[in-house]
Amino acid sequence: MIKAKCDTIFGCWVWILVAATTVYFPLLQGWVMYVSVSSFVISFLLLLSYLFGFHKKVESWRILDSLYHGATGIFYLSAAVLQANATIRSESEVAADFIPRYYQLNVAATLFALVSSSQC
């Protein structure tokens, strides 16, 4: 249950931080947004189902939980790498007026994606 809370919280932060910037690299940051939003929604649904006691009725709950967290870890690792690439590219390819603010937001999004990939 703690993993679901960490995924939900850090995934939400990735989502917020990427959405706070102007997306200059839609292919890279689109995948990051897809991973963070879908992982947030699925983690939230799993957390609700755990809180309502569905894990007691389903025998394969542990398998589902393990598969979900394994896949989410791989997806967040790929999203963190792509977000890091977008962060590096934003130093030279973003308008000079926006570089400090967007660079800091992108660094924070990369950090939270890496933390999310480690599964707390």
UniProtKB/TrEMBL annotation:
One GO BP annotation of this record: myelination
Membrane topology of this protein: Multi-pass membrane protein
One GO location term (cellular component): membrane
Subcellular location: Membrane
Pfam families: MARVEL (PF01284)
Lineage: Eukaryota, Metazoa, Chordata, Craniata, Vertebrata
Any GO MF annotation of the entry: structural constituent of myelin sheath
Keyword Mitochondrion carried by entry: no
Listed transmembrane segments: 7-25, 31-52
Entry-linked PANTHER family: MAL-LIKE PROTEIN, MARVEL-CONTAINING POTENTIAL LIPID RAFT-ASSOCIATED PROTEIN
The entry's keywords: Membrane, Transmembrane, Transmembrane helix
Organism from which the protein derives: Thamnophis sirtalis
Matching PROSITE patterns: MARVEL (PS51225)
Protein name: MAL-like protein
MARVEL domain: residues covered: 1-120
Domain of life: Eukaryota
